[in-house]
Prior knowledge:
Blueprint: H1 2-13, E1 17-22, E2 28-33, H2 39-59, E3 60-61, E4 67-73, E5 78-80, E6 85-86, E7 92-98, E8 102-108, E9 114-115, E10 121-122, E11 124-130, H3 136-146
Antiparallel strand pairs: 1-2, 3-6, 4-5, 4-7, 8-11, 9-10
Amino acid sequence: MKRQKNILRNQRNNHSQYLIINHAVTNSFIYRWDNRSHPLDCRNYSFTNFCIFHCIKCFLQKIPQGKAIVRTGIGGTNVAFNKGMYVIPVFHKMEIMDISVKKIEISRMQHDGLICKDNIRADIKVAFFVRVNKSVDDVISVAQFRM
Length: 147
């Protein structure tokens, strides 16, 4: 028993743990309770962690300023403006929508000019500025209109 305690004391210095189980007065067994795993297991866990983080990175879609992500599929329709959103290709469909201000110019000049009621030709040039409101309901309604 004295020898077993010395072995136990020496092995604790090596940061291993031992568990002593006494089945009878004369028979005692020492079982190793080791926190360290096999060296190949470490590579297995790091590869698994790498795969998990790579999938998370690939599924995270970030959006620049002035655009919105509209994600449809499992979980309903979700919209993100300034942050990222997880999009899993099998379960979701993603669409990037531009919600910044757009300029639409219409010009009717020379032969395409407008003819007024008094038969005078008028050259017209008009500019419209259009944008989508930055609210979830408005973006969803525009996204449904586009599809």
